[in-house]
Write a structure and sequence with these properties.
Blueprint (H helix, E strand, L loop, with lengths): L3 H14 E2 L15 E2 L12 H11 L6 H18 L19 H12 L2 H19 L23 H7 L15 E2 L1 H20 L3 H22 E2 L4 E2 L2 E2 L4 E2 L9 H5 L4 H8 L2 H4 E2 L2 E2 L17 E2 L1 H13 L3 H22 L2 E2 L2 E2 L4 E2 L9 E2 L1 H14 L2
Antiparallel strand pairs: 1-2, 3-6, 4-5, 6-7, 8-9, 10-12, 11-14, 12-13
Length: 384
Amino acid sequence: MKYEKALRHIAQYWNELLVFSPEDKGIHIGLPHHFIKPNADAFNDDQFYWDTFFISVGLLTDDTHLELVKGMIDNFRYLQQRFDIIPARNKFYNLGISQPPFLSTLVRLVHEKTHDLVWLTEQLPVLERELKDYWMGTGVSAHLLESGLSRYCDHNITHQTAEHESGWDMTSRFDRRCLDFTPIDLNSCLYKYEMDLSFFYHTLGRVKKATEYEQKALFRKEQINTQCWNEEEGFFFDYDHIHQEKGTRFSLAGFFPLWAGLASEEQAHRMVDHLTRFEYEGGLVTTDEQDLDPFTQWDYPNGWPNLQWIVIKGLKRYHFLDDAKRIAGKWLELNNQLFEETGAFWEKYDVVDLAIGKSGRYPTQKGFGWTNGVFVALYKEFFE
């Protein structure tokens, strides 16, 4: 079996990343259930928000880890109940920021396996609270903009920490003015959040609530198309709401509308025409090639596993199956090549020079939770 050694390594390595720490210890917030940390070095004993989702797409390829994933979801509920936020991770100094909201999608993945309506019903208050009170909040965090779309923001309302909330820490996308941009990835996530809530309420037979969330999603879709779709370029960009102009930086964030299902068929075809900007022998670069000084890690030539997954799933959703499988294959080959050379999986990769990813804000980490999860998920979906 191709990749047998790599897959066996990942299956065994989950146990090394498993944490149970129910009591507060120093800067760490205790969590009631076991969770998977990204690695044992820089991110030891941390349950990150969006990392958990991409770790889980691998864990959920079989039923062995279902209860572990449900426990990690319960950890988010615990944090929200205690602190009124699902923070970027379980550290006290991160209680002022979250990360891109993937919780509704994770709940949906679990529901598709269990069809447990009681469990689903228990999750809805958590999801609605995160959407309404945090991502559409107008108080201290001020995520909601006049347009009805949302931005990344932190409790101190600073550009740098808002960029940390985006997960893209750091990137040329925001030109160090993250608060000034309406992000295409965030609002695509929120569109999907609203559509997921509509689906959940339909499943529960609550048609009025389902329709309410579908209408909210359609309004968001209209605003995204108005602000973020560039008809001339045929691409989705972040929107500079201060200068009232569309951004110009091509990035994989532009493919989030395909993953979320809000792009039209025509838009999807035009987006696919831009794959050549990003595709290299090792997969997809995060942004198109530019000379950057200083270098930032969420830019060319680095490719990140979570973004490969988003783009590949978006391509598959719009029936670009050959493109999806080709990119998945390139990514698995690069991951496997570096695993055979180094004995480890890595947080990110240089997809141009086929190497470990270039360090940016901190040294590139080995381990690595979401890389492992995406590797397993893509292998199972396209090559098993």
